[in-house]
Amino acid sequence: MRIKDLKKSLKSKLESRYFSITQPWELLKFKYLDRLEVSSSDILFTLKHNDTEWKVTIEERGIIQESKSFLSESDACEYFESLVIK
Prior knowledge:
This protein is of the alpha+beta class. Helix content is 28%, strand content 35%. The mean pLDDT is 81.
């Protein structure tokens, strides 16, 4: 799974819930996306890529509750989806 596929999947699965799916506008001009955020009223789930790894973080009211790194986009996307959907 790639991050674009993840965004499509989450949109369909979160239709009836109160979540917002966002991407920083400046990243949309690139050929690929390297950041995705899903937020509810007090929880922010972030998936982002830096030079060497993919990182998934969960923030609750501005405090990082969990942070996990992955070497592949696919593994990070699957983990991210499982966190958001549960």
